[in-house]
Design brief:
The chain has 573 residues and is an alpha+beta fold. It is built from 22 helices and ten strands. Helix 1 runs antiparallel to helix 2 and helix 17 crosses helix 20.
Length: 573
């Protein structure tokens, strides 16, 4: 149940015309009252002899009775209450109870004292109602509506439990500001998929990803095509900034600017500056490292560094103090933004969804201890400066490697948020992990298919040798891995590691023990990427045309088997 308080207004009649009218897309059906301050209040939807003007006059009468100098400038209070699509359809009587509970919670009405403002609740669709109230009682008293939004949200959580509706997570005030209804309607008129506020928030977030100076941040913003205005002190010091889309204009044909803090709490100038605060001496040295240059092969190098940084960050999130965990989680959002911006076409869609979902998970009230997250922020910077990856050969395989490591980092973030009571952030992180899982499947299919074919061609004695290595290194996982399609890719990787001079048994033991594997769809896939990164093996080999064709079919078969196991697990859960 989502209650949303709209901006206060001055014209009751205008709002009534909208609520009882057909709607912008003829979506309003059978508009009628389900509750009001007076059981005998007229209902223009059901009583043809009653007009909207008559209802408006009754609602506004207490305001008209007040001395004009004492009348509130904006006396119309408007609350919409909407259920989720999967919720059952409530009866009018149930919506009536919802409305009465909401106006009491907000402070519009006080049933215990038998006094309150005049209000009505209009239903013109199955899934929501609109409550309209006049902000003055008949005795001239004006209600105290401080924190009305928080109170109606709390009431919504109670009603969800009582009515058997989908339970939404309690917010903590760190979410980005939602677009207003006016912004949404404007986006619809302009044919935009997102509002200007949402588009600007994503643009600014990508611009700040991995930056190490204000100059670089503003250069990236300018390159993205947005309009920028800086707020300067008399001394010339920069105090803040705001941005606008060139084609988003107001009635006076002027660009509509949004300060960074109105886009999201962590996009204000002080918070952006705080990202680059120095840590210990080691962090200072890391900060001075030059970004990777955009030369052939560098996109793969940047993704290997990202995988390594994510691998190390999991330890901080799982075992560090809350300040360190919060810093690494926030920096993870920058890495996801950078991956989404530079990823290959076949993974870009899911990675963008992952970055968008994780935005909510990147903020909490726990103060991040900046500086120790430098490796992740440097990884984001390397990704941006290395340029886009084409998804072929080593580039494509290291994309899969980086996504795989980020999946475990985001899963650790979800567990941390759940442990610290951040319900909305935990849900957002879990959704992000699902998008990363889909992106991984797209990225890993071809390189794992090639390794699968190489493993299938290993001689029987060599395959038996690698089976013995597996049983010795990870006896508790051996049978599960041997039953997975990815076992042959792991066998090929163990062979590569041995040929490169490594001890495959100790390498595999180390890879399996350092991080959990229970959340992996395929344990063998995860071990492949961990081994190839740790042993510095090429993430991909260059297949022949025949191998590539065979690998494509093998990858599809492997993906189908993995999906079947995933579906079976979901069915049991």
């Amino acid at each position: 149940m989502i209650p949303r308080i709209q901006k206060r207004g001055q014209r009751t009649i205008g709002l009534l015309y909208y609520l009882y009218g057909p709607g912008k897309h003829e979506e309003h059906i059978d508009p009628h009252l389900v509750a009001s301050w007076d059981h005998n209040a007229p209902d223009p939807g059901r009583d043809r002899s009653t007009t909207l003007k008559q209802l408006q006059q009754l609602l506004d009468q207490p305001v008209e009775n007040i001395d004009q100098a004492q009348q509130p400038k904006k006396h119309v209070w408007h609350l919409s209450v909407r259920n989720s699509a999967e919720d059952r359809i409530l009866a009018d009587e149930e919506w009536s109870e919802v409305a009465r509970r909401m106006v009491a919670a907000a402070g519009i009405d006080d049933p215990e004292q038998g006094a309150g403002c005049r209000w009505i609740a209009v239903r013109h669709a199955d899934d929501h109602i609109h409550i309209v109230a006049t902000l003055a009682r008949e005795d001239g008293y004006k209600p105290d509506l401080n924190h009305d939004a928080a109170r109606v949200q709390a009431q919504a959580r109670a009603l969800e439990a009582e009515l058997g509706l989908r339970r939404l997570n309690k917010g903590d005030g760190t979410a980005a500001r939602r677009p207003t209804s006016a912004e949404r309607h404007k986006a619809e008129r302009q044919g935009r998929e997102r509002t200007a506020r949402e588009e600007l928030r994503q643009t600014v977030r990508r611009a700040v990803s991995g930056t190490t100076s204000e100059e670089e941040f503003f250069d990236r913003l300018a390159a993205s095509g947005v309009l920028i205005r800086k707020r300067l002190a008399p001394s010339g010091d920069l105090l803040g900034y705001k941005v606008a889309l060139p084609d988003d204009r107001n009635k006076d044909d002027e660009p509509v600017f949004y300060p960074g803090a109105r886009l999201a709490p962590d996009l204000s100038l002080p918070r952006i500056r705080g990202r680059d605060r120095s840590g210990d001496a080691h962090d200072q040295d890391t900060r001075q490292d030059a970004p990777v240059r955009n030369v052939p092969g560098i996109p793969a190098t940047a993704r290997r560094r990202t995988a390594a940084a994510a691998w190390d960050a999991v330890l901080f999130v799982e075992h560090g103090d809350d300040g360190l965990a919060a810093a690494h989680i926030a920096a993870s959002g920058e890495v996801l933004d950078a991956l989404a911006k530079t990823s290959a076409a076949h993974t870009r869609g899911e990675l963008r969804k992952a970055a968008t979902s994780f935005e909510r998970a990147s903020r909490s009230h726990i103060r991040a201890e900046r500086g120790h997250d430098r490796a992740l922020r440097q990884a984001a910077r390397d990704l941006i400066h290395s340029g886009p990856a084409l998804g072929l050969g080593e580039d494509g395989a290291t994309i899969a490697m980086a996504i795989d490591m980020m999946f475990f980092l985001i899963t650790a973030a979800a567990h941390w948020h759940a442990k610290t009571g951040h319900a909305q952030q935990a849900a957002a992180a879990r959704q992000t992990a699902e998008h990363l899982r889909a992106a991984y499947q797209a990225a890993a299919a071809q390189p794992l298919g090639v390794l699968y074919q190489r493993g299938r061609r290993l001689g029987r004695p060599l395959l038996q040798q690698q089976t013995a290595v597996l049983r010795e290194a990870v006896p508790e996982l051996a049978e599960q891995v041997l039953a997975e399609p990815g076992w042959y890719a792991l066998a090929a990787t163990l062979t590569d590691a041995e040929n490169a001079g490594h001890d495959p048994t100790s390498l595999l033991t180390d890879a399996a023990q350092h991080r959990e594997l229970t959340t992996a769809e395929s344990v063998s896939d995860v071990l492949v990427w961990r081994l190839r990164r740790t042993a510095d093996l090429p993430a991909a080999t260059n297949p022949t045309a025949t191998e590539a064709h065979t690998a494509q079919h093998a990858a599809h078969h492997t993906w189908q088997q993995t999906q079947g196991r995933s579906a079976a697990r979901r069915g049991r859960s």
